[in-house]
């Protein structure tokens, strides 16, 4: 059965040598010195390895069940959740005014990675609460903040997002759930919502549902949608819990994975709700949750891949099978370990280069969020808005692929549930789908984010890449292995952008037929930039001669792998994009 | 719940317009006229849609169970198996001397595709029997043939392959199962075998296990391995069933998918077995089964993808979500069907182009088998030996990817087991692993098959591609869309081969680090050749003006998609190969 160890050395490398967080002027970052973040990550690692990881496989096998209309989570989840709360882990970046620890969002992501790697399904209960907390903090009235934030900040109550209905997923304009205004200022919410993660459970005494619904007078489509706070148990004026609200669990879905998290059909039968934010502006308020959720899903993509990689690596070192083609490396035993075989290396290098690159990209994204929200920096706001669909789409596509690679290392044993590798694949699969399927991320990227703010964010990104290359061209060692491939990849991305500008005006299908490839191309360039920054940091550390030289040399070698073997994918993506709409759109719907 | 319709029009196109089977001088092919094959495929389609497909999801949900040491298959499997046998489907290419239908292997593949698409797990019971039949036919004594073939030919008894042991998968030299010679000429077989598909069940009264074991005097490693026939129930001299043999099911594995097929731990406790083929030459005899099995697994890869594609296509036509970017196409309803969206098209085109191309490649491979075995053609024997790892590895990698694409079309609904899309993904996943994990296929291709027979087969392949291009360069319409990209892709493949020749001599790791990419590159070139041949056939039919013009036009458009959007992957594969061993082999085992 898989175990997990938090990769704290690599996390510290990203925080302190790539991002140099304690030298960043974002409010709160000065406190993030190496000892402080190290202590946090080590402690998070302990609870992850000791408490959460042991419940991962059992949670998958046992799943959630509905008893008397209430969801019962798998054995041990309740106790583990209590322990997480007691340690303050569920409130790490919450506002101290409501009892949070007040740390930057970045630290919530770093610890979140650890918890997700150990047990993704379990961690979703607090992940969704984080989103609900943020939405109420951003859009709630003072009374709403007072009523909910202190409870949500540390998961005394948990939160959910209610968007999807049976006939409407991406296209929320088709929504049927209704909100009827009442005389006391509340609304009666009626309708059915599906795919509600953490929709109910036994980990907290209340669940605060944030529900999109149509209130009268808002017009057609998404314009008529508002966001409502609908508690499972009504809250009295004094903050105590009152009567049960008219919201119930219709059923728990049978899913491919994340069995430890209850995905519920929620029925609202005239439930009492309160408007959150402005009437008919619910989409905007919901996007506060969605953008954060999308970053977290990108994180899930590589965090599960990290866990899968750890097990594949251990198996490749232990399992004796065949001999190295260059002669026995383990002559005392009847066979060499799998890791001597070049194709196993290829597989492991792909996993390692992906998870380490993805970690840098995600932490960088989280730092941009902090810079935007804590530092009020508009350029960072624009950049993270641009990068969010890339982080969500690319890291989950590649994260899933990486878990499949990890499973493959086990051969037939990987297909047996007992080994735990199947679970990583099944769990990772949802990350490509929820919070906007990856095709929708690609659409968001190409149709909205590229042209946003007159193209400033994308231009800023290109300038940043160019600037980095120029600044470091003097490093002979970096040039051929890192900077030259990064330059070529960035050129491919620019060429794709130019193609969209030239062709998209005439035929929007030409841009949209290439949107998925563009997302992937962009993801590769981001990874190439991250690996180049990592190489610079490792190179500098080796020049200084301090620290763990083996670690830095491995970092450089892993980066070289990415630049030589993965980054050339940008040319393929560009070729696909430049083939335009015709190959994709030629058939009539009937001809499929 | 998914339904399935056999794509008989496309199958007929491949048989009669691409392969032109009835004009082929392979023995038995002259009988394969259009009406005859059409009738067979239609009938197979009926039983697939009416009997097998309805048991696919229920078989997955119910799985197999062990009762009093015997495997019980899911409800309905027994009756369906009886129906399949009664229709003669299980004996389609068996020798008429033993009661088979005597049709070419090609027709067994074509009907096999239909049955696998409808219910992969179910079809494995007869698939493995086919392998056991072939091994006994090729290597058995006359007495063994008389005793077993008439029973195996139509699945009155079924067969298994027993290779893997807990500590030995790919590396069969580590095998521990022992065979001790007895005075009566039989052997006592003792050991444990794992991952035995169809290891036991209630569909037939006997199971004939073909078991690899070490008999005394054979020496170390794979040299000491022999193959044995070990029936579940011993067979008396008169052919009647005797006592139970000392072989039992240890347990049924809990797997990611193919739940309808019992994957068993088999315990041999001094079981009685008989040598099949020569002593200590068991690997050779087993490879008779393995090569056939590998082709069948490649077939499974795309056959499951075909079924998944059919459902994704139907969902994309029905599900209303969003509006076409070029203006509403379904103004009467509140939204357009998914299929109007370019990124959904990209996804569906990728699936369609893959399954149709894979079908051509597999049928071509089957025709090569017939030409080699029925026609005694050595060149075909060499070519199919070269192509087998490509067909197995490439079609299962892409087949799995294709089922993931199909699942993605469903958004969140794809993740719910009820929709059936998860099952396709979970079932398809095993095809990349069993009968030699795909990394082992790549190794086989690069380390053995490329240099086999002085490189004659691969040179023959290149000549064939070149000849085809030269012969058809006059077709202006084919040149830019098909022949030019095929030429470029074929050049990439040749360049990769040259790189291996130049570098592999100095450093075998340089070739092996690129083996997986080479397999993929080769697969793409094969698909490019197939699509070019299909384009020629469709072009000719349109020129003649007979037949279903819409079908031919769709065929050309689908081919153009493949050539423009998928085939350029060869350049990426070549770049990865040419980066050599360093990026892959740089780290020490400890540095991962």
Q: Indicate the structural class of chain A.
A: alpha+beta
Report the strand count of chain A: 11
| Helix proportion range of chain A | 55-70%
Radius of gyration of chain A: 24 Å
Q: What is the overall shape of chain A?
A: globular
> Helix and strand string of chain A, N-terminal first?
HHHEEHHHHEEEEEEEEEHHHHHHHHHHHH
Biggest chain-to-chain interface with counts: A-B, 96 and 96 residues
Q: What value does the average pLDDT of chain A take?
A: 96
Strand count, sense and barrel status of the largest sheet of chain A are: 7 strands, mixed
Cofactor (chains A, B): FAD
Domain Acetyl-CoA dehydrogenase-like C-terminal (chains A, B): 461-587
Family (chains A, B): Belongs to the acyl-CoA dehydrogenase family.
InterPro entries (chains A, B): Acyl-CoA_dh-like_C_dom, Acyl-CoA_Oxase/DH_mid-dom, Acyl-CoA_Oxase/DH_mid-dom_sf, AcylCo_DH-like_C, AcylCo_DH/oxidase_C, AcylCoA_DH/ox_N, AcylCoA_DH/ox_N_sf, AcylCoA_DH/oxidase_NM_dom_sf
Description:
The structure is a homodimer of 592-residue chains. Chain A has 592 residues and is an alpha+beta fold. Among the domains of chain A are: 8-138, Butyryl-Coa Dehydrogenase, subunit A, domain 1; 157-279, Butyryl-CoA Dehydrogenase, subunit A, domain 2, CATH 2.40.110; 449-582. The first copy, chain A, is 55% helix and 12% strand. The first copy, chain A, contains 19 helices and 11 strands. Chain A has helices at residues 8-18, 34-52, 56-62, 77-86, 105-118, 120-139, 142-152, 282-318, 342-373, 378-409, 421-429, 438-449, 456-472, 476-504, 508-512, 515-544, 549-566, 569-578, 582-585; strands at residues 65-67, 70-72, 157-162, 178-181, 187-197, 206-214, 225-231, 233-235, 241-244, 247-252, 263-276. In chain A, the strands form 3 sheets. In chain A, strands 3, 4, 5, 6, 7, 10 and 11 form a 7-stranded mixed sheet that branches. A two-stranded antiparallel ribbon of chain A has the order 1-2. In chain A, strands 8-9 form a two-stranded antiparallel ribbon. In chain A, strand 4 and strand 5 form a beta hairpin. In chain A, helix 8 (282-318) packs parallel to helix 10, helix 9 runs antiparallel to helix 10 and helix 14 runs antiparallel to helix 16. Chain A is globular. The two termini of chain A are 44 Å apart. At the A-B interface, helix 8, helix 9, helix 10, helix 11 and helix 12 of A face helix 8, helix 9, helix 10, helix 11 and helix 12 of B.
């Amino acid at each position: 059965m898989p175990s997990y160890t938090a990769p704290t050395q690599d996390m510290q490398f990203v925080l302190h040598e790539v991002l140099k967080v304690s030298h960043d002027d974002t409010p709160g970052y000065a406190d993030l010195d190496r000892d402080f973040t190290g202590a946090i990550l080590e402690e998070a690692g302990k609870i992850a390895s000791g408490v959460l990881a042991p419940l991962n496989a059992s949670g998958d096998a046992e799943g959630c069940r509905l008893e008397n209309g209430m969801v019962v989570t798998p054995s041990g989840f309740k106790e583990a959740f209590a322990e997480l709360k007691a340690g303050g882990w569920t409130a790490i970046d919450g506002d101290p005014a409501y009892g949070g620890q007040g740390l930057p969002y970045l630290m919530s992501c770093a610890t979140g990675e650890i918890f997700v790697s150990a047990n993704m399904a379990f961690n979703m209960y607090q992940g969704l609460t984080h989103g609900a907390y943020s939405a109420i903090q951003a859009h709630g009235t003072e009374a709403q903040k007072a009523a909910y934030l202190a409870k949500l900040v540390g998961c005394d109550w948990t939160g959910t997002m209610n968007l999807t209905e049976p006939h409407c997923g991406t296209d929320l304009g088709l929504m049927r759930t209704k909100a009827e205004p009442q005389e006391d200022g509340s609304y009666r919410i009626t309708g059915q919502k599906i795919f509600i993660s953490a929709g109910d459970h036994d980990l907290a005494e209340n669940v605060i549902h944030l529900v999109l619904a149509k209130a009268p007078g808002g017009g057609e489509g998404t314009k008529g949608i508002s966001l409502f706070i609908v508690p499972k148990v009504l809250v009295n004026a004094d903050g105590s819990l009152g009567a049960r609200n008219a919201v119930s669990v219709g059923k728990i879905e049978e899913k491919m994975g994340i069995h430890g998290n209850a995905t519920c059909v929620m029925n609202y039968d005239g439930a009492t709700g309160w408007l959150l934010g402005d009437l008919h502006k619910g989409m905007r308020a919901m996007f506060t949750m969605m953008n954060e959720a999308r970053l977290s899903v990108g994180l899930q993509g590589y965090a599960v891949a990290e866990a899968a990689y750890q097990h594949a690596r251990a198996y490749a070192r232990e399992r004796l099978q065949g001999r190295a083609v260059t002669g026995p490396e383990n002559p005392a035993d009847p066979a060499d370990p799998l890791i001597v075989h070049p194709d196993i290396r290829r597989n492991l290098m792909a996993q390692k280069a992906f998870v380490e690159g993805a970690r840098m990209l995600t932490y960088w994204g989280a730092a941009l969020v902090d810079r935007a929200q804590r530092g009020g920096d508009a350029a960072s706001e624009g950049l993270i808005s641009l990068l969010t669909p890339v982080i969500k789409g690319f890291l989950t596509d590649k994260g899933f692929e990486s878990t499949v690679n990890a499973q493959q290392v086990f051969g037939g044993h990987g297909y047996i549930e007992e080994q735990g590798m199947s679970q990583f694949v099944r769990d990772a699969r949802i990350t490509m789908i929820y919070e906007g399927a990856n095709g929708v991320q690609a659409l968001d990227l190409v149709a909205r984010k590229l042209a946003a703010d007159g193209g400033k964010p994308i231009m800023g990104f290109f300038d940043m890449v160019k600037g980095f290359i120029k600044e470091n061209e003097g490093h002979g060692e970096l040039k051929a292995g890192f900077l030259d491939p990064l330059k070529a990849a960035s050129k491919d991305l620019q060429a794709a952008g130019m193609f969209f500008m030239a062709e998209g005006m005439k035929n929007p299908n030409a841009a949209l037929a290439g949107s998925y490839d563009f997302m992937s191309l962009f993801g590769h360039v981001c990874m190439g930039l991250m690996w180049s920054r990592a190489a610079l940091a490792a190179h500098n550390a080796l020049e200084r001669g301090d620290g763990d030289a083996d670690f830095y040399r491995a970092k450089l070698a892993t980066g070289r792998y990415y630049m030589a073997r993965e980054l050339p994918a940008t040319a393929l993506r560009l070729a696909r994009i430049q083939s335009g709409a015709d190959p994709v759109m030629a058939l009539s719907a009937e001809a499929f």
